[in-house]
Each structure stands twice: as structure tokens, then as C-alpha cells.
Specification:
Elements lengths: L3 H46 L5 E2 L5 E4 L6 H7 L6 E2 L5 H11 L2 E9 L4 E8 L2 E7 L2 E6 L4 E3 L13 E3 L3 H16 L4 E5 L7 E4 L3 E3 L5 H13 L3 H4 L5 E5 L7 E4 L7 H5 L1
Parallel strand pairs: 2-5, 6-9, 9-10, 12-13
Antiparallel strand pairs: 1-3, 4-5, 6-7, 7-8, 10-11, 11-12, 13-14
């Protein structure tokens, strides 16, 4: 015969099972409501994203700001967006990274406008300061040492007067400092020949200048000496020289042309 304590234990067990079933039922409905809410929200977002007001249908909805050298159409063609595309699917950071790697721009900021759907792209262009050939390709280089293919710019863009020969990775590293020195000089430099890494040769308004192995401190001194020699061509009109040797900046040398000797038959005439 069951005792009272045994009956209480059975009742407790039954009550616990009842409570567990109730908790499970509550959790089931909670998960169901969460699923329905998420599905509804996702469906609503997809529906909103496909509305006509949220669709980029062509380049006319892409505004370009900050461009001077590049045309708006040229930049729009490089924007990695497949039309038509929802404004919500556009990734501004991906567009900025793509343009910075393919267009001659220093920085790009992309912002989205949801209503109406538009993209605004602000660019900071790279201004070319010299013509240079790199790996067999003709291009332009800016003050920071960024080389860009010539085709990156429209054909009507004015090309720099300065030319660099022998451009390579080593030259690109020192170029920012070298160009900063050049831009401060009052002597016009037309060409820098780096083909011999032990002797940088300048083509200037004064004539050819040999600088030797490039170093930033020496280059600054050499340009200062050239400024002091600006009157040299006028003083040596009748005595043409071959080049100015500034390899030793503390002791400049003027390499003069050797007079041509007349042969005997010419001397008799």
C-alpha cells in the first residue's frame, strides 16, 4: 500500500513534467515568432530594395566631384556598378578601393543617397609633374612618385615639360624629395637622366649638368650652385662648354669643348 510521502513524490514528478512541457511550448512559440519576424523583416527589406526609387539605373545617377583633369564620364566608366542595381547592394568602400587602383586619383570618398537613389563620388586627382617610361610603358608621374599610364588621362590634358629617363623602383623612392628640391629651384630643369645610377645627369636651361650618385643633401647643394651660375651662358658665349660637373659640390668643374685643330690643307686656305 502506497504511503502519503510516495503519493507526494508522484504528484511532484507529474507537476514538473507539466511545467517542462509548458516551457517547451513557450520556447517553441518564441522561436516561431522570431523566425516570422526575421523573415518578415528580410522580405520587407528585399521588397523595399526592389522599389524603383531605390534602384541605380545608369551613370546619370552617379555624381563626380573634385575632378579637374578627368572628365565625369571617364570616372563613371570606372565605377564598378552593374546597372540596374539596388542602392542597398552598393558598397562604397569597394568602389573607392577600385577607383584608387585603376584611376589616377589620390583618394576617393563615396556616399550614398537613398531617396532619390544616387551615388556621390569625391575624388582627389593626381597631378602629373613629369613624363616617364616604366617597364616599357609611357606614363606620367606625380609629385609623390605615383606612376600612371598615359592612357589614364584624356588626350587633351597638358603634358608636363619635365622628362625622366631610367625610371625604376629605386628612383620612385627618392623622387618625392628630389621633386620637392626641383620645384623650389629657379633654374629650369628639362630632363633628369637616371640611366646610370652612379651619375644623375640633368638637362637644364644652363646646359648639361653631371651630379654623380644622387643623395638628397648633395642634390640640394647642387641646385643652389646652379642658381649662382645662371649668368654663366652669357659670360661664355664664345667659349661653349660640354657640361657642368657638380659631382663634388664643393668644387664645381666646367668641362670645356676642345678646339678643333685644322689640318694642313685647311690651314693653307
Amino acid at each position: 500500500m502506497a504511503t502519503t510521502s510516495d503519493q507526494v513524490t508522484v504528484d511532484d514528478f507529474t507537476e514538473r513534467r507539466k511545467q517542462l512541457r509548458q516551457k517547451r511550448r513557450i520556447k517553441f512559440f518564441q522561436h516561431l515568432w522570431q523566425f516570422l519576424f526575421i523573415s518578415g523583416a528580410t522580405g520587407s527589406m528585399l521588397w523595399v530594395a526592389t522599389l524603383p526609387d531605390w534602384i541605380l539605373r545608369g551613370p546619370s545617377q552617379v555624381d563626380i566631384e573634385g575632378n579637374r583633369l578627368l572628365t565625369q564620364e571617364a570616372i563613371q566608366k570606372l565605377v564598378p556598378v552593374s546597372y540596374p542595381q539596388s542602392i542597398f547592394q552598393v558598397q562604397p568602400s569597394a568602389i573607392a578601393a577600385k577607383l584608387e587602383s585603376t584611376a589616377p586619383v589620390r583618394s576617393v570618398v563615396v556616399t550614398r543617397t537613398l531617396f532619390p537613389a544616387r551615388l556621390t563620388i569625391q575624388v582627389q586627382e593626381r597631378n602629373p609633374v613629369a613624363k616617364a617610361e616604366l617597364d616599357g610603358k609611357i606614363g606620367l608621374i606625380d609629385a609623390d612618385g605615383a606612376w600612371m599610364p598615359l592612357k589614364s588621362y584624356p588626350a587633351n590634358v597638358k603634358k608636363p615639360d619635365l622628362t625622366i629617363l631610367g625610371l625604376n623602383k629605386r628612383v620612385l623612392q627618392v623622387w618625392p624629395n628630389a621633386y620637392r628640391r626641383l620645384s623650389q629651384s629657379h633654374v629650369k630643369i628639362l630632363q633628369l637622366d637616371w640611366r646610370d645610377e652612379n651619375n644623375l645627369i640633368l638637362k637644364t636651361e644652363l646646359g648639361i649638368v653631371h651630379c654623380g650618385l644622387y643623395s638628397d643633401p648633395d642634390f640640394a647643394k647642387q641646385l643652389e650652385i646652379l642658381e649662382r651660375l645662371r649668368s654663366l651662358p652669357q659670360k661664355l658665349k664664345s667659349q661653349p662648354f660640354v657640361y657642368i660637373d657638380l659631382t663634388n659640390s664643393s668644387s664645381p668643374i666646367l668641362e670645356m669643348k676642345t678646339p678643333t685643330k685644322l689640318n694642313s690643307s685647311e690651314s693653307k686656305q
